[in-house]
Specification:
Blueprint (H helix, E strand, L loop, with lengths): L1 E4 L2 E4 L7 H21 L7 H6 L6 H12 L2 H14 L8 H19 L6 H9 L2 H34 L3 H50 L2 H7 L12 H14 L4 H8 L4 H24 L1
């Protein structure tokens, strides 16, 4: 589309923002991710370096990475869609993952950090040394991760299509190529540092968007009057839905390879526990931020 700004023609993206503003921001961000990835390539001397950042990550870096891993494109699109369909009661979706993170930090992180493992299958092998168990663990982890990866690809395609009108497939390909570039070149170290940057961006953007939305709405009464009563009720879901969301979120951590890697990457046991706690506290803050503001 197009619009007039002063006497000049201004090409706008699908969100109404001039492309001269939004396009450079997206391009700079993507280039920065790739540059960070390649800048860490020189530190990749061993499998430990590539897969676990040399097992020397600190608590805040781990916490930021846990947060950015959980609050991803899948979360933004999926939870937004659920919120649009169910209203305030969609908040129940977030309870399970947060409690799962607390459980993981309190009861699993210390024991896992003691192991010299890289993956969930390696943990199973360390405990039971069974080929069948390793196979089951690998399939469970791979199934979860492929589904999660698929949602990220969909998020890429949706974002580029919405902002710039790029065909969904090409947007998905572009986002995937950029992600692979910094992951493959810089390993987990690059992933965690880009996660740290994403934490800052997500928190800053949320802190700006929520007040803007509140200003547009006017006040809570206007919102309540404009919506059906069930959309502003925490009881607009069935008990079975709440239980299902809780169990799904609670136990997703037990097969999440990304969470295992964050624990394995820690300098020591305490750092692993503190990092997981920080990540989940940041996640809880982000989930609550719209309600607090």
């Amino acid at each position: 589309g197009s619009g007039l700004v002063g006497s000049e023609m201004c090409i706008r993206d699908r969100n109404g923002i001039p492309v001269s503003i939004s396009a450079p921001i997206i391009v700079v961000y993507l280039l920065a991710m790739v540059i960070i990835g390649f800048s860490f390539a020189r530190f990749m001397k061993s499998s430990d370096d590539f897969m676990l950042g040399g097992r020397k990550m600190g608590p805040w870096l781990i916490g930021a990475s846990v947060f950015a891993t959980n609050i991803s494109g899948a979360t933004l699109l999926g939870f937004t869609s659920t919120g649009y369909q169910l209203g305030v009661s969609a908040f129940w979706v977030t309870v399970g993952p947060q409690l799962g993170g607390v459980f993981f930090a309190a009861f699993m992180a210390a024991k896992l950090r003691k192991m010299e493992a890289y993956t969930l299958a390696g943990v199973i092998d360390n405990q039971v040394n069974s080929k069948r168990s390793r196979l089951v663990a690998t399939l469970a982890s791979a199934t979860r991760d492929f589904m999660y990866l698929g949602s990220q690809v969909v998020a890429f395609g949706t974002m580029f299509n919405f902002l710039f009108g790029i065909p969904f497939v090409w947007g998905a390909v572009l986002g995937t190529v950029v992600t692979l570039a910094f992951c493959v070149s810089g390993g987990l170290m690059a992933v965690m540092w880009t996660d740290y940057i994403q934490l800052v961006i997500i928190m800053a953007a949320t802190a700006m968007v929520v007040p803007m939305a509140a200003k547009h709405i006017g006040n809570w009464e206007n919102l309540v009057n404009a919506l059906p009563a069930e959309m502003v009720s925490v009881g607009n879901v069935t008990v079975s839905q709440v239980i299902g969301w809780f169990l799904m979120g609670m136990f997703a951590y037990t097969v999440a390879q990304s969470m295992y890697q964050r624990v394995f990457s820690a300098r020591n046991i305490k750092v692993a526990q503190h990092g997981m706690i920080i990540g989940n506290m940041l996640g809880a803050l982000w989930y609550c931020l719209p309600f607090l503001m």
